[in-house]
Amino acid sequence: MSKELSADILIVGGGLGGVAAALGALRSGRTVIMSEEYDWIGGQLTSQAVPPDEHSWVEQFGVTRSYRKLRNGIRQYYRDHYPLTAESRAWGDLNPGAGWVSRLCAEPRVGLAVLEAMLAPWRGGGQLTVLQPYRPVAADVDGDTVRAITLVHRDSGERITVSASYVIDATELGDLLPLTGTEYAKGFEAQSDTGEPSAPAEAQPDNVQAVSVCFAIDHLEGSHVIEKPANYDYWRAYQPEFWGGPLLGWRAPHPRTLDIVERSFTPNPDDDPLLVDADQRRNPGDGNLWTFRRIAARRNFMPGAYASDICLVNWPMIDYMDGTIIDVSEEEKARHLKAAAELSYSVFYWLQTEAPRTDGGVGFPGLRLRGDVTGTGHGLAMAPYIRESRRILPVTRIVEQDVSMSVHGNALSKSYRDSVGIGMYRIDLHPSTGGDNYVDVESAPFEIPLGALLPRRMKNLLPAGKSLGTTHITNGCYRLHPVEWNVGEVAGLLAAHCLNNGLTPHQVQENDARLTDFQARLYGEGIEIRWPDVRGY
């Protein structure tokens, strides 16, 4: 017997899209149950430990009001609780880690604290129930309608069946799609299907982007060398044919040009955090891997507060390409995730013992794993970083031609009558399980069509993240933090809007008047649906 619960809206998955969906639905007066399989909500920002990948204009426009509240909240948390220097405290666009990948590199636990604070009033008021750590295992489906989802507790095995009028899939891999019989795509689509210039001739459903198990490190004097990982020799000899050398090395393909380039690594370079220019339009920032995704720059804090910077390792050499974790047995999935973690341990051991230094020596024995920063005892991130999910077969599929700069030039991408948000990032596909190199395509600032959130057949199932209706190619620019948040927030608002007005999502999308009403609601909620016209008037 499983316990039974019900709510207006069930959100399965508590990553960024799930939290945003919950907030959107709750602000609309609806009751919500949200589940999450890990100990932390926040997904790629927290449990996966990835600083937010954002576009160049993020401080001015191009994100939703609530996403900006999250970003501002992270900065304010540092001002309220951390011993910042006077200069850093006064820095309006405070970047705690002064990482080059993003204007807001911060410790995962701070993002978690702010997300929890955003949800706290709704939990206290009884509108929101959060179930952790639970994952979905079964679905009750009646034709085109999902009636209930059964969740199982990670540790105890307790089962809870949740019924709801709307079900939102905010899982990292689109786990509700096979459970509910929702039609979906995965991996590479064929060029004959999508017409995409970067697509292969034939579909490759098991060829997906690499997963990565990230980790945080710092550097102190002395030796902190870990025990040699069991599979270290395998990974030490591992060399993809397009890599330009061993995977464990400073040489790797440049994502944009595919030229073989050599990165540097200099722990604690004593640079001025306020001079870091985290704008990927001008500089991808990955030349020095220490500062690339740094999440704590010690010079932002009072002397002695941090003995070392803290660096987040999400580098090319931890990309796991040996197999997919989508639509395989639980045993095979666990085997691949274990191997991905072993690769990360091997990269860390190589850094400690064999990595070439600029002074001619090898190894940085002073490096330490900071599992306390990522919330684990094993030293790595709590959850694997998932770049690619199953994807619904949607009413509107977003293809490469819709966003590519080679099609649109120095202009905005395709405009949709049913836009429900905006985003911007290069199409940035990491090496994949099929042996493909990077696919990196210049993108134009894009819109998010409501039709990409609607399965063609299912009536009350909505995606809240990477399972929206992109292709393998366009997933590369729609998978980043602010876009996932936007998609989730709209899914929550849409489900509530339909309940409040006696409509279905498809009825909202198909009818111009209803669509205009919903878009006006989004505008009122602080969701930008068009890129701003910045010309004079």
Question: Which short descriptors sum up this protein?
Answer:
2 domains, seven-stranded mixed β-sheet, FAD/NAD(P)-binding domain, single chain, 18% strand, four-stranded antiparallel β-sheet, 21 strands, 537 residues, 16 helices, alpha+beta
Overview of this structure, please?
This protein is α+β, with helices and mostly antiparallel strands and 537 residues long. The protein folds into 2 domains: 3-51 and 106-189 and 387-525, FAD/NAD(P)-binding domain (3-Layer(bba) Sandwich), CATH 3.50.50.60; 211-268 and 308-386, no CATH class. It is built from 16 helices and 21 strands. The strands form 7 sheets. Strands 1, 2, 3, 4, 5, 6 and 21 form a 7-stranded mixed β-sheet that branches. The protein has a 4-stranded antiparallel β-sheet with strand order 12-13-9-15. A two-stranded antiparallel ribbon has the order 7-16. A hairpin with a 5-residue loop joins strand 5 (145-153) and strand 6 (159-169). Helix 1 runs parallel beside helix 4 (108-124), helix 1 (16-27) packs parallel to helix 14 (481-501) and helix 2 (65-81) packs across helix 4 (108-124). The model has no long low-confidence stretch (mean pLDDT 95).
